[in-house]
Amino acid sequence: MWNPVALLALALVQQTSVQPAPAITLGGFLDRWARVESLKEMARVDPDTRILAEAFARSIVDWKAGLDADAAAGRPPRACPVKGSSVNFRTEEIVPVLRAMPAEARARPFRDAMADYLNKRFPCA
Description:
Structural class: mainly alpha
Distance between the termini: 40 Å
Largest sheet: none
């Protein structure tokens, strides 16, 4: 059986060498996700799987870079992940949160929706 966590594992492995992914909206990501998820085992060979993995990985890389840029510029942090920690991102947690975002959020860039999720997941105390 195809496990959607494999998509995120692929994304996290590729984090250090992520190529620019095509711009995708939250709605586009969720629509493609649903389609790929429905493919079960065949998802491994579907080109959208790589596109989704790249969009996911790129959103995390961009989010981390934004946090670093804020710190370098002396701006207050928008999120406070534990430095040097390893975080496991599970699709079973993230996708339902993204699906629950308001309908108007579906037109936003996926990376912005992910940044909102990550900022809420790692609040500053």
